[in-house]
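sry for the spam today, last one i promise. struct tokens for design, 67 residues
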């Protein structure tokens, strides 16, 4: 995901701003990292450049289905 996407991304739970933590980047592109909500402390992973902004309970359900 591009870093300027941070301007439009918000926590799906409480609509607060997210804090970006970059583990791996390529220019303006974040390849790996996480988005943390400062309000509800939920952490959303970024994998292969794609932010996973599913609420945690939906995310667990999706993971359970794919495995
Ligand atoms: Zn939140």
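last one done:
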């Amino acid at each position: 995901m591009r870093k300027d996407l941070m301007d439009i991304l918000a926590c799906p739970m409480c609509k607060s701003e997210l804090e970006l933590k970059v583990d791996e980047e390529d220019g303006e592109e974040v390849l790996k990292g996480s988005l943390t909500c400062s309000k509800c402390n939920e952490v959303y992973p970024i994998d292969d450049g794609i932010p996973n902004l599913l609420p945690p309970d939906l995310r667990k359900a999706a993971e359970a289905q794919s495995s």
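The longest helix spans residues 56-66. ok im logging off now
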